[in-house]
Design a protein that fits this description.
heterodimer, A: 290 residues, mainly alpha, ABC transporter involved in vitamin B12 uptake, BtuC, two-stranded antiparallel ribbon, B: mainly alpha, 2% strand
Chain lengths: 290, 349
């Protein structure tokens, strides 16, 4: 029972990071119906830029994170302008391949500049593990989880109660309607990409501090696909629950079945979800049936 | 099909023929002679490149049936190639079956796997189908790398080159003819296949599945058939690859390879056999060039030694994005435009 609670809690902590990555998918998918396979690579960019600022340029950690956030915003606006703006409304294969091409491009650039080896991340969170009752959690996990939850709450408030959030929701609802009420749709789609890139790179810091910085971090982006899809591609709440579910399933299957299973558990969940409920837990039932 | 000026059909035979003019016959025979004579004058480096192109072309022809003809997106093609490769290697090495029997068996194995993972296509399409095949890739590769006592796991498995009526095809110069022959057969089949009832049904499903169903095409069985055929090609390519590489391990079949296959199809032009060859040759040559240039770039400031390995990927990503934005119909379309213009010359239309 202790083993179960321990794994469950750890899974929940990892799930927090998946949740924030899945949120990145949802924000973009809602605003322009593009499913971004390069989300994991945006995460990689965040992890590497902040790592390079702190370790290679010897800047303080807050400066590294600030530069990373600014870089992510610029990158988000940039990739929206090219190549993703011409892709709106294109057939699914073209969209899938453009974002996959972008993923390959970003990853190979990162390998070209920083190499393919794993670097340890500076200790931004204390290393001492914390014991709560019978379970022990590392502080990195707890801090990441807390920050993710804080991020999610911030986003909920931002989308619900601010003017920009309202406009973003209008764009997500319908491009033509939003445009006819005077919303600058292009700028807000760009903003969604910037938001998505920012969340992804924030996830990159957390994952980097837990696993170290290496190109393999981008695979977390692929697993977060499962989280976004289980929750439903149109639902932010679904993305969060899906992320937590994937984290828990991954750690539990690693504990009870074996080390390698955790790596593919997310994909089993993905196939299962697509068989049973292709539109996800909270998604719109708009998927075309044939 | 557009024909050169002054070519008219005077009978049904001519209407049906694939090759119409004398020039086309001459070019085809000259090309085949060039390919048959290749081991006589080409070095081992060039021979390896051509073998790689042939094997990849078979795999991409299969993907062309699946995506280009029938419109079913698959991001897991490398895993089906892996299924064929492992089936062939296990049959020949562990069970002692002849290569000539293992080759079709590998195709059938991959086709059966393809049918299983193609089943979701009956319910979903587009993005969701792509995600299912992506998951299929990881699940198949997980199964292959963890069934250690059958597949050898990450250490890999051996596959020897075959014999042909007592003649050893061990040297690459001899095995090259196996690859050449099978590539030609598969191309011929794929070219003719489009003109059969099944091929035309696939195109109808691609263009509009609801209209196809109303016309009396059984969507379920034809979609499954598309997966079976596409993956059969993948299995044949896998078997060829296994005996070409002689040792295979799971690292030969990564998700990146699946993406390269789809990329070749896009660069070449979907739904066209000539396009498959344009795409495969174009991207393979780019890759060869990039692996030559990559190590030189490592001396530049700001870049690390990693650039040697990642330069080809960088160029590939760039090419795919540029093609999708500026020429989504691929090189085959460019080739058609060029052919039309030189046939018309010097008249404007």
């Amino acid at each position: 029972m202790v083993l179960f609670t321990q794994s469950f809690a750890t899974g929940l902590m990892i799930g927090g990071i998946y949740a924030i990555l899945a949120l990145g998918f949802v924000v973009i998918y809602k605003s322009c119906k593009i499913f971004n396979f390069a989300q994991g690579e945006l995460l990689l960019v965040g992890a590497y830029v902040s790592w390079a600022c702190v370790v290679q340029l010897h800047l303080p950690i807050w400066a590294g994170i600030l530069i990373m956030l600014l870089f992510a915003v610029a990158l988000g606006f940039g990739i929206e302008r090219f190549p993703l703006r011409p892709m709106i409304g294109q057939p699914p294969l073209a969209i899938i391949m453009v974002t996959l091409g972008l993923a390959i491009l970003l990853r190979s650039l990162i390998i070209a500049v920083w190499g393919g080896v794993r670097h340890p991340y500076p200790e931004i969170f204390p290393l001492q593990p914390v014991t709560i009752g019978a379970i022990t959690l590392s502080q990195q996990h707890i801090w990441s989880f807390m920050s993710c939850i804080a991020f999610l709450i911030m986003f909920a408030i931002f989308f619900r109660f601010t003017n920009i959030g309202l406009l973003l929701r209008a764009v997500a609802e319908d491009h033509i309607l939003a445009k006819s009420t005077g919303v600058n749709v292009r700028r807000f789609i760009g903003l969604s990409w910037a938001i998505s890139a920012t969340v992804a790179s924030a996830g990159g810091i957390f994952l980097g501090s837990i696993n170290g910085v290496s190109p393999a971090l981008a695979d977390f982006g692929l697993k977060a696909i499962a989280a976004a899809l289980v929750g439903g591609l149109e639902s932010a709440l679904g993305a969060v629950l899906g992320g937590l579910l994937i984290g828990v399933v991954e750690i539990l299957s690693t504990t009870y079945i074996g080390q390698g299973v955790g790596e593919v558990a997310a994909f089993f969940v993905l196939v299962l979800a697509l068989f049973i409920r292709p539109y996800g837990l909270f998604g719109l039932v708009k998927i075309e049936r044939v | 099909m557009r024909l050169p000026g002054g070519t008219f059909s005077t009978g049904y035979n001519q209407e049906l023929a694939i090759i119409r003019t004398r020039l086309q016959w001459v070019l085809l025979i000259a090309f085949l002679l060039l390919m048959v004579g290749l081991p006589l004058y080409a070095g081992p480096y060039l021979l390896r490149i051509v073998c790689g192109i042939g094997i990849t072309a078979v795999a991409v022809l299969g993907l062309n049936i699946l995506i280009g003809y029938c419109g079913q997106i698959s991001l897991g093609h490398a895993a089906f190639v892996a299924t064929g490769a492992y089936a062939s290697a296990i049959l020949t090495t562990k069970l002692g079956v002849s290569f000539w029997l293992a080759l079709p068996c590998a195709g059938i194995c991959a086709a059966l796997t393809g049918i299983i993972f193609g089943l979701p296509a009956l319910r979903i399409k587009g993005l969701h189908l792509a995600l299912t095949t992506l998951a299929a890739h990881y699940i198949i590769m997980y199964a292959i790398s963890h069934a250690t006592n059958i597949t050898g796991g990450t250490a890999g498995i051996q596959a020897t080159r075959p014999n042909f009526f007592g003649i050893s095809l061990e040297p690459l110069k001899s095995y090259y003819y196996v690859i050449l022959a099978i590539t030609i057969i598969m191309t011929f089949f794929s070219r003719n296949f489009l003109r059969t009832k099944i091929g035309r049904s696939f195109v109808a499903i691609r263009d509009n599945d609801k209209a196809a169903e109303i016309m009396g095409i059984n969507l379920a069985s034809y979609k499954i058939l598309a997966f079976a055929l596409g993956c059969f090609y993948a299995g044949i390519a896998g078997s060829l690859w296994a005996h070409y590489a002689e040792v295979i391990d799971p690292d030969h079949f990564l998700l990146t390879h699946s993406i390269w296959y789809v990329g070749m199809l896009i660069v070449g032009g979907m739904g066209s056999n000539a396009g498959v060859f344009f795409g495969v040759i174009f991207l393979r040559l780019i890759e060869v060039m990039a692996t030559e240039i990559g190590p030189i770039l490592a001396n530049l400031p700001l870049l690390s030694v990693g650039v040697a390995a990642s330069f080809a990927q960088f160029i590939f990503g760039l090419i795919i994005i540029l093609f999708l934005v500026y020429e989504p119909r691929g090189l085959a379309h460019r080739w058609e435009v060029f052919k039309t213009s030189y046939r018309m010359w010097p008249f404007p239309y």
